[in-house]
């Protein structure tokens, strides 16, 4: 995702991937409304076909209606991670990203040496990456390096970026298994732990089991025999006759990178945050990190960024990560705690209240994230899909369609030719990737009712709003130089 965003922003990008071939493990399979909106904004949605969708999500195993969030793509969408990876890899390559597989990063450093000991911060003009690939070891010089390499991030370790939070207290074993026929179980809390089982479209059954009191100080990967033993302890069922397709383990650790940026090294996705994958939020959080970072880093790399633009990545996404991790930690306590039944009854009742439901659904779906930056209630929010009548196309367009190129968009809703001319001069005087679109005033009931003009960032978030004839120059300078 980040490679594609960087290419949309005009930056040259090289992806180094340790695996020789794409993984066949779809560990994640849930996409939420905000992620689907992002794919729509980039014109990627048709590539996913018609994935299954449902309204009902959950909060700590308690049913939660996600179909009520204010989005044209509300709900929970089932898309295998393998498909997400394939679509995004094809898109990034089409845009010109250089993707090299079977390349493993071993060291980072400045101009004169390699490794964190030489000091990344001292390398003001770039980063040297030592990598081993099919043709042996080599050094690659980059202006910037992003570790988007998962919760055990090599880049984070080499950069010396610490994480803070709560270490693991429980582990959940997970496997996709063929050759078994057991009942589906949705967050079944039992005396000896938690059991989840569901038949996948492939015919395999996904098992997840947390055995109460099990140790979490693991030094080796779990075996299928361990999973069978834990499943038998919790449910009384024997699944040992099945064949595992893949096995893994995750924990309730809740850790956040202390910095998303150190010098010319940045982190995105699970490299910046480790959390229990409750409700499929991890993959969505990572993709949203990438879309926030991509246009900012591309502007920095191509010399268009105003001072401080790249610093807003850490400020905005660490805050968003903390909100999601707090949400997941609360779910973990509700779902895995031994004595939480009274609390679960209370939360079940509270979720029926629209204000509580909307708050929780907004965080889980991603549509409720608001970045700091302005007094108007729209500033900092993602605009979402708003139909617009515009002179760009006879049939009209939408806020979603205006973001296809990954540019900023200044939308004039005043219907005032003189104001349009002034705004056009402002946009033409800039080298940044911003365009002006004039539309008739929105109808009553539109999310933009009463708005005279607004500035959309390339990631779909609102940077500035005017109800009258305010000057957008300060906002243009802040975000686009």
TrEMBL record:
Named cofactor requirement(s): FAD
InterPro entries reported in the protein's UniProt record: FAD-bd, FAD/NAD-bd_sf, RIFMO-like
Record carries keyword Flavoprotein: yes
SUPFAM superfamilies: FAD/NAD(P)-binding domain
Highest taxon, organism lineage: Bacteria
Chain ranges of the FAD-binding domain: 1-327
Molecular function in Gene Ontology: FAD binding; oxidoreductase activity, acting on paired donors, with incorporation or reduction of molecular oxygen, NAD(P)H as one donor, and incorporation of one atom of oxygen
Keywords for this protein: FAD, Flavoprotein
The protein's name in its UniProt record: Oxidoreductase
Source organism (scientific name): Parafrankia soli
Lineage: Bacteria, Bacillati, Actinomycetota, Actinomycetes, Frankiales
